[in-house]
Structure formats: C-alpha cells, structure tokens
Design goal:
Helix content: 40-55%
Distance between the termini: 48 Å
Largest sheet: 6 strands, mixed
Shape: flat
CATH class of the largest domain: Alpha Beta
Order of helices and strands: HHHHHHHEEHHEEEEHEHEHHHH
Number of strands: 8
Amino acid sequence: MSRFIAVDRQTDYLLPPSIEDWLSEDHLARFVVEAVDRMNLDKFTQQYQGRGSAAYHPAMMLALLIYAYATGVFSSRRIEQATYDSVPFRFITANTHPDHDSIAEFRRRFLAEFADIFLQVLELAHEMKLLKLGRVSVDGTKIHANASKHSALSYGHIEKLQLQLIQEIDQLMKLAEEADQTPLPEGMNVPEEIKRRKARQEVMDKAKAEIEKRAAERHAREKAEYEAKIAARAAKEKASGKKPGGKPPKAPDLSINASDQVNLTDDESRIMKCAGGAFEQSYNAQAAVDTESLLVVATFVTQACNDKQQVEPMLAHLQALPGELGKVNQFLADTGYCSEKNIERCEQAEMDPHIAVGRDAHHPGVLARFSEPEALPADATVLQKMGHKLKTQSGRAVYALRKCTVEPVFGIIKSVMGFRQFSLRGLNKANAEWNLVCLAWNLKRIAKLRPNCVRSG
C-alpha cells in the first residue's frame, strides 16, 4: 500500500469549479474586491464613451491594480501573467485575462482618480471605526525614479559634448567634400552620421535650456531670500540703533553651476542622497501616518532633496481631509523638518508640533528618561521652546511614537510590498503612483485590522 496521497492530473472536474471556493473568506484579494465594489467609481465609468469594443469594468481593473501593488507586482506584463498563474489574480479578474496594454493604459488614464480612491479608502476605514484622526507622524523617503543616474548630464559636460559634436560634423562635411579623391571608410554613410549628430545636438540644446530654466528659478528664489534677510537686518538695526552682530548675508551667486544636471530619461527627477550614502535618480515621497492605525492619511511627491520645505504642503493636505475623519491635533516629525517657520506654521494650523531640533545622543544616562528639564528663560526662542518640550517626559513619550509609526510603514512598503522604484515618469505621474501605493497599503492594513468586516450583500 502506498504511503503517499495520489496525484492525478488527468481526471477532469466532475462539476465546474466556482471561483468563490478558491480563496478563504479572509483573503486579501476577496477583501479588495469587496472594498472596491463599495466605492463610488462614477469618475471612472463616465470616461467611457460606449464606442468600440467592450471594455473591462473599471471596478475589476482597479481591484486588480490595487491587489497587484499590495502584493509587490508592479509591471503591467507581470500583472497580466499573474492573471494566468495566480489564483487570487484569477479570482479578481473572474478568469479573464486583461492584456498588459490594457492594464498600462488603465493606470495611465486614471492617474488623477487615484487621489479620490485614496480618500474613499480612508472613509471606509472611518466607517469601520479604524480611523479617527488625531496624531500624525510625518516623514519622507527616497524612491528611485524610472531613470538611471547615468542618463544625467551636467551643464559643463553638455558644453563639452556640444563642442565635440560641432567638430565631428565639420569633419564629416570635409569627408563628404573629399569623397571623390579619398574613399570613405567602409560602411560609413556621411548623411546618416551628420543627421545622427544633429539629432544629438537638439537633445543637448533642450537639456541645456532646462538647466538654465531651473537655474533662473533658483536664482529668483535665492535673491528673494537674500533681500528678505537684508531687509530684516536693516529693520533690526533701525529699531535697536545698533549694528546687528554676525556676518551680513552673502549675496547669492547668480551663475550657472557646471555641476547642475538634467536627466534625459526623466528630467523631472533629481539626483538625491539615499540610504547608505549613495546618490540615485529619485523622488522624495512624503507621507503622514496616523499613529493609532498606521494608515497613511496624506501623501505627495516632491523634487526637493530635503524635507525642510515640506511642512506647509503637508499641512495643506491634512487640512483638506474630509471633516468626518476628525482633526489632526499633533504633528510629529524629525529634525529634517525643523525650523522656526515650520513650528509656527503648525501652531497656526492648530496642530501641536513635536519636531526634533537636533539628533539625540545614543545611550543617554540612566536618569535621563526620568528627569524633567530646567525651566526656560522668559526670552527663549521658538527652537529653544521646542527643544525643551521634547526633553520633558510627556514630550519624549509623544515623539517616541514617530519611529514606530511612519518608519515601519515605509519599511513594509519597500521591503515587504517591494516598491522601491516608480514605474511611471514625471512628477505628476509619480505623485499619482505614490497615491496608488499608499492606498494599496491602507487596504492591506485595514484587512489585517478588521478581517471580514466588509462583506457584499
């Protein structure tokens, strides 16, 4: 007698199998389908004209995309293949197989609508009593752009290449003129070679113009900041009757740096310093995470390498959230967001800021966690007051929540879901894809917190 279970791949099914029997009741794919079925998809369906061949329903395509991103499948070709190979994908598509062109086109076509779906997911979490806004933790993470840093050209290198191209075209023109006396190298087509170099010249000209445009914008911004500092210094001198101490502000350098770069593949991405000290072609993806549920409640993508200028945009996103979700009353962020202006802006938005003013030393003394700081002087600055708040026991307890909320979410998105690079190019498309990633995380999180809570009737 055999000790093994028989494996028979030849016997046909006696009855047609039902896709309802393929997955457990609490499976993520089932949850995603039921959640999407509850959403208002009018913004999707209204864009179909009714002409041509029948289209896949937006509810199915949206559920397919969300589940794919939640499980680390981002390529449209891999998503198409998964509809053949994977039982959960087959369940979502009901045994149909959208081709990769249809999947990619759906993603491109409805980029703007992902922001609305993101909000509907938050409203679903609120209905399930999983989300009530109060305290949020904010941070940014570098996500690789769909472009290589080796496709970037600096202003100085472009000028060298332009000179080289001019010289090569002149050389080719001379070869063409002397072709009757001196035979050309075998296989050389002079008109094609000249055409190729002129095409490269056009690319170089566009890249150079883009760098000059960015430099002009930077110069205007730096000039405005310089003039504001000079005006503030003059006003202080007039009010006190004394010359202000310290060095006067340095006038900005209005020249174009030879190291200023543009990327030929995705010219809206930027070279950024990433984890480990490496420099990569990236975007800076921002997120605000609710500290109770670990749900992402606000997102956007920026080209800025640092986070200093991201407080005001994040506050605007938080204030624009639907009122029924609650009101954010505490704003947690690391030292990268710290400035007097940012602290004051949080207070004006009626959000209690807990923003680190510097990095804490590792391994504090044994009594450090149990002591209170000395009282502040009456003339303490905004930054001094913030530093004092974070040294109190209550301030430390609140700020400690930052590391165990937003950073784990980024870790799961990158290491578990596997999202480390944008599939789409350009700032607006990257912003929409980040919305898709975060709403996929939110549904994944909701399913974990409250399985089987959303059931179709």
